[in-house]
Structures are given as structure tokens and as C-alpha cells.
Amino acid sequence: MKYRIIGNMTGNSMDAVDLVLTEFDGQNICDICSYSKPFSKEMQRNIDFILRPAVKNKTAAEILKLPFFQKIHDAYIQEVAACINEMLTLNNIDKKTIDVIGFHGKTLDHYPPSKAKRNGDSSYTLQIGSGQMLADLTGIPVVYDFRSDYIMNGFDGAPLIPPHNAHIAFMEGDGCYYNGGNTANFAWIIQGKPQINGDAGPFNEYTDNFIRRYCTDTYDKNGKYGLKGKLLPDLMQKLFNKGRSYYESPLPKSGDPAYYFKETIFTEIEKEYGRPTPNSQAFCDIVHTFEYFAAYIALQALTLTDATFPLPAQVILFGGGWKNPIAYQSLNELISGNGFVLNEHQKLFNSFLKRFEKTPRVHYSRFGKFMEARLFADLARYYLEKKAWELPNVIQKSQNLVVGTIAYPRQSSSYTDQINRAAKGWKKFDSDTIE
Predict the structure, then answer these.
(1) Helix (H) or strand (E) holding 142
(2) Which of 298, 282, 10 is nearest to 127 (CA)?
(3) Pairing state of beta strands 314-318 and 175-180?
(4) How far is CA 10 from CA 76, 106, 129, 298, 398, in A?
(5) For 89-117, what is the mean pLDDT?
(6) Model-level pTM?
(7) 297-332: pLDDT as tens digits
(8) Closest CA to 121 of 201, 57, 51, 60
(9) At residue 128, what are phi and psi to the nearest 5 degrees?
(10) Are 110 and 420 a contacting pair, CB within 8 Å?
(11) 3-state DSSP assignment of residue 253
């Protein structure tokens, strides 16, 4: 069956509203148009304003009572809706030809079973964003809240992208599909199916936060700062030590910046290098090292792949982070065995690289620019077809799990879905679910 679906993504970094209108016709996938609009500094600050108290032991009911939550939430949804309406207007597309919008919402916290069980806790995930409000403002049905069903059934619910990578592999071939966003995540696609996947760790996280902290830029566009810098091995070691427990935890795993991003690293950097001044050599060296570390952690995560697992000699990149020239070049150097490696990883990296029959071809996916936005269009398609979104660990446990919920336009004046179903405390309110 043929569908025309809008996919939306606003990532952890809150850099932009990314949209893509995609036509799905069986195995054929074709993007009709796309749109991206940067968030204002004010919107980024507002989301950060509610993020910190929201993740501090807050249930959904408590979050709704936070000062300014409703105002900030509504402004966020209004911005997404305005972008959708503008994309359709600019491209002369009739809303009646759109089946649904696939909407992710904004993640504030993610505490999956793979981590919660080790700590003896209950798992949860926290996304904000009323699908009902978005449906009312656009006049288009919205499929959303994709992660809750996984959490409520004992799965991590992140990364969600491996099945979509497999659909793209129909056109681009088997390999390791690697996303470079705020967080890096990957999926090995073998014979057209996702076999193993996981989050790797920070990608843009350190770089973007550092740049926003010390200058007016929001990210290192085209390697503006990183290309002027050099690698700082001592800082590399500090960064790995900060997130060691997460980086060395086994696959599959789901991450959150809280596991490896510690703002104290910036305080430590100031003590060692002084307060960084934009464009100074120290500033550029630090940015360069963050960007190299992104590629480094991406490869380190792959070394966790079981030694018996076959490794196709192709690494397909997507996500804006890989457009950074330092990150892209560094991954190529590391995969060819020529990059800088911490002493503790020399044998590990060498052993892993020998598992490839030949040096992997590293290249950017021709579907890469809006891969994450298209993912949520694809998820919405599977919801409409009542088909399970088959993540590798879900398949292994023979679960047939259709994920998401749907909202139809009805011009409502009040909304009860600003927070997803599996936010903290969900077990208290839904005794029928299991973990």
C-alpha cells in the first residue's frame, strides 16, 4: 500500500525542527520534500529550563505542575506545527494528500531497562509533545509516543532506527549504519535485517555544549574551529574516564547524555587551560579533541560486537554530525588503523579491525540528510499497517510489538498527552503493563 507521511525530529541538541515528506510504496522509499528550521536560542533555553527539574525524580503529574511548563510545551508544538504548515505551503502540497505525521516529541530523559535493572530501579522514558495539539494545529492525524510501548514491555526503546536502516539497506546494501547526532548509534544490517544495534555515546554532545557555553555559535559549522586545532591526548583520556562505565557496558544498550556528559568536564578544562576564548588555539584544540572523540567512541562501541558476528565491509553514515570534517576524517583514520588510540585500547582496536576481510568503505548515505525524521514517518507507516517495528532484541524474544498511538484533529481546547505514557511513575497508573 502507498502512503505519504511527514516525519519530524527535534533531537536532544534542539538545534532545529527537521521535517521530511516521504512516499512509501512497498520497499520503495522516495522523499518528496524536506524542511529544516533552526530553533531560536530562547527556545533552546526554555527547553533546558524545564529539562533539569523534569529529570530530577519527577513523575508526569509533577512535571505538568512545573512553572512555565505549559507555556514552553505549547510554544514547542506551535513551532513544529508552523514548520509543517510552511513546508506544505512552500511545496504546494495539499494536506488532504498526507496520511499522517510521525512525531517523536522532545526527549528529556531516558532510563531504559538495560540500566534500570542493574540499579534495581523501575525503567521509564520521558518525551514531551502533545500529538493531539499537533494534529489540531495542522489538521493532519499524528502518530506518536513510539518509545513507551517498548519500555512498558521490558525493552530499551532506543535506538529505534535499525529497522529503518534495514529498509534503506534494500537500496544501499548491508553494512553498519551509523548515526551521528547528539548521540551516536548504530545497527549492523545483514541480509537486509537488523542483527544488533546500540547507542555508542556522545557525538555532538560535548562539542555543541562547549561552543554554546563560550561563544555565539551553536555548533562547529564546517569545522570552523576544529580544523584549526590539534588533538589533546590527555583530554581524550579524561573524556573516556568520565563515561567509562557506560562505554564499556555490553550491547545492546541504550544511552542518555546523563550517563557520560558531565558538565564538570568544562570546569576541569577551565582549570587546566584557562577560560577558553573563541578562536584561541586552546579553544580550537578542545573542539578538535571533542570531535575526534566522537569518532573514537563510535569505533570503540563497535568493538563490543560479539567476536563471532560477521562484519560487512561497509560503514554507511547519516546524521548531521558526520558532516563535520574532523569527525568524518577521524573515523576513516581509525578504521584504516592510522588514528590515535589510547594505550588501553591498542590491542582491542587492532583485534577488531582484523575481523574485516578488507578495510571497510566509509561513506555517507544518499538518504542520510533526513534519516532520523524519515524514521518517524516509517514508524507511523508501520503503526497504520499494525506491523511490529522489529528491533533486534525484540525479535530475539519473539515479541510482536506494534508501537505508538494516534491522534486525529478535533480542535480540542485541553490536552492530556503533553507527556508520554511511560514517563516516571507509569507503573503506578497501569497495572496491566509489564517490564
Answers:
(1) strand 142-144
(2) 10
(3) parallel
(4) 10, 6, 11, 22, 31
(5) 93
(6) 0.86
(7) 999 999 999 998 889 999 999 988 999 999 999 999
(8) 57
(9) -110, 155
(10) no
(11) coil
**CA angle, 212 then 366 then 96, to 5°:** 90
Q: Are 365 and 169 in contact (CB under 8 A)?
A: no
CB 160 within 8 A of CB 392: no
What does the block give as the cell for 234?
590527555
pLDDT (tens digit, 9 = 90+) per residue, 5-54?
Answer: 999 998 766 778 999 999 999 999 999 999 999 988 889 889 888 888 88
Mean pLDDT score, 170-178: 95
* Rounded distance between C-alpha atoms, residue 153 and residue 169, angstroms: 28
Grid cell for residue 61: 503529574
Contact predicate 35/19, CB 8 Å: yes
Q: 13-46: b or e for each residue (b if 16 or more CB lie within 10 Å)?
A: bbbbbbbbbbbbeeeebebeebbbeebeeebbeb
Strand runs labelled E in 307-410: 314-318, 361-364, 405-407
Distance CA 317, CA 311 (A): 16
Amino acid letter for position 75: A
Please report where in the chains the cell 521535517 appears, as a residue: 19
Mean residue pLDDT of the chain comes to 91
At 393 the pLDDT is 75
Peptide bond into 278 cis (omega under 30): no
Place of cell 485541553: 414
**Residue 277 burial by Cβ neighbours in a 10 Å radius (0-12, 13-18, 19+):** exposed
